[in-house]
């Protein structure tokens, strides 16, 4: 149903652009629909090579002629190549109607690899997009990628710094792209990460298998966030910072470090469900079931349909009972008597 709905939506956009061929917004949307269609069909084809891989391969190859390039693309994409051509022409038509559509320039830079003057065209398209929207994170990301591909590291980092700061999605992409080779110092010098951005880098280093660098990042994150807690934060900001530190402590395999902070946080936010839950689960992991059960029972009573939470609560209560004296016995009685 979802695929059928997406197909119908694409068809509706294409029909609208045919009916109103001078509407630049509709033309840009139609061009994006062609690209989306290409991606879906390419995924299901025998040579399921995504667009970015085609683009990278063309950049590193040395084709004798434009015909040779197109022949290679036809072998890789088959009939789907026509959708890329339609997308390119439709983006160009959109710009003919309105040369102020920055997104169209970015997409055309991505599709320029089908032309022999790809590098010159990519630069020209991106330059125009940046002129129109100099602080747009998506455009900055595209500009940084283009600079990186051309070996211009300094210019790439200058462009990516904006994307890294202002776009959560691009922040994660950039972190994962660089974490395999870059050092923590490189990130701090070039991208100026703070707060949650440091946590994103820590996760990227973990994904890349660089546990030492990931640990460095988590330690830096905890230090900065604990310092931030000393300032004037709203309740939402305070809760987010506390939970972020808790996540970092878990990543550092130091859950006990979070217990005092979480307990203190409940003094300010006594009805915070995530803090009660975090403290309850952490105490359970440390076998402190007496206090853990209290926090988890508080949470479980508010979310009776949460099966995982109910199981964790039942386990904590069961373990707490094991440490308490049996009803009807006197734990202080002299056993020798």
Give the helices and strands, then pairings.
Layout: H1 2-19, H2 24-44, H3 51-60, H4 66-77, H5 81-97, H6 102-111, H7 118-132, H8 137-149, H9 153-166, H10 168-178, H11 184-190, H12 196-207, H13 211-228, H14 235-251, H15 258-268, H16 273-285, H17 289-302, H18 307-323
Overview of this protein structure:
It is a single chain. The model is unreliable at 331-337 (pLDDT under 50). The protein is mainly α and 337 residues long. Helix 2 (24-44) packs antiparallel against helix 5 and helix 14 runs antiparallel to helix 15. The longest helix is centred in the first third of the chain and has 21 residues, at 24-44. The chain has 18 helices and no strands. Helices cover 74% and strands 0% of the residues.
Largest sheet: none
Q: Output the structural class.
A: mainly alpha
Question: Which percent range fits the helix content?
Answer: over 70%
**Average pLDDT rating:** 91
Computed CA radius of gyration, to the nearest angstrom:
28 Å
Low-confidence stretches: 331-337
Instruction: Report the portion of residues in β strands.
Output: under 5%
Number of strands: 0
| Through-space gap between termini | 76 Å
Please tally the helical runs, counting DSSP H or I stretches of 4 or more residues. Answer: 18
Query: SSE string, helix = H, strand = E?
Result: HHHHHHHHHHHHHHHHHH
Question: What's the quaternary structure here?
Answer: single chain
The dominant shape is: elongated
């Amino acid at each position: 149903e979802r695929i059928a709905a997406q197909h119908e939506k694409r068809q509706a956009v294409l029909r609208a652009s045919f009916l109103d061929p001078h509407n630049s917004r509709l033309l840009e949307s139609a061009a994006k629909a062609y690209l989306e269609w290409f991606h879906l069909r390419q995924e299901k084809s025998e040579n399921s090579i995504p667009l970015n891989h085609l683009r990278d391969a063309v950049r590193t190859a040395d084709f004798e002629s434009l015909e040779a390039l197109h022949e290679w693309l036809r072998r890789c994409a088959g009939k789907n190549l026509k959708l890329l051509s339609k997308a390119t022409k439709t983006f160009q038509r959109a710009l003919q109607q309105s040369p102020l559509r920055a997104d169209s320039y970015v997409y055309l830079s991505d599709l320029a690899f089908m032309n022999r003057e790809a590098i010159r065209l990519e630069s020209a398209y991106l330059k125009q997009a940046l002129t129109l929207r100099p602080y747009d994170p998506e455009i900055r990301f595209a500009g940084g990628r283009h600079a990186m591909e051309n070996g211009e590291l300094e210019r790439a980092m200058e462009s990516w710094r904006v994307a890294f700061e202002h776009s959560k999605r691009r922040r994660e992409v950039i972190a994962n792209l660089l974490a395999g080779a870059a050092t923590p110092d490189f990130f701090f010098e070039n991208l100026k990460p703070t707060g949650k951005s440091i946590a994103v880098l820590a996760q990227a280093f973990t994904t890349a298998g660089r546990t030492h660098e990931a640990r460095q990042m988590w330690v830096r994150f905890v230090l900065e966030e604990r310092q931030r807690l000393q300032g004037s934060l709203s309740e939402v900001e305070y809760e987010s910072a506390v939970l972020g530190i808790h996540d970092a402590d878990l990543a550092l395999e130091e859950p006990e470090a979070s217990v005092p902070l979480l307990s203190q946080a409940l003094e300010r936010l006594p009805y915070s469900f995530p803090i009660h839950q975090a403290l309850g689960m952490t105490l359970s992991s440390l076998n402190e079931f007496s206090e853990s059960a209290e926090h988890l029972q508080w949470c479980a009573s508010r979310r009776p349909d949460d099966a995982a939470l109910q199981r964790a609560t039942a386990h904590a209560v069961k373990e707490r009972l094991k440490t308490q004296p049996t009803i009807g016995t006197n734990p202080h009685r002299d056993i020798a008597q």
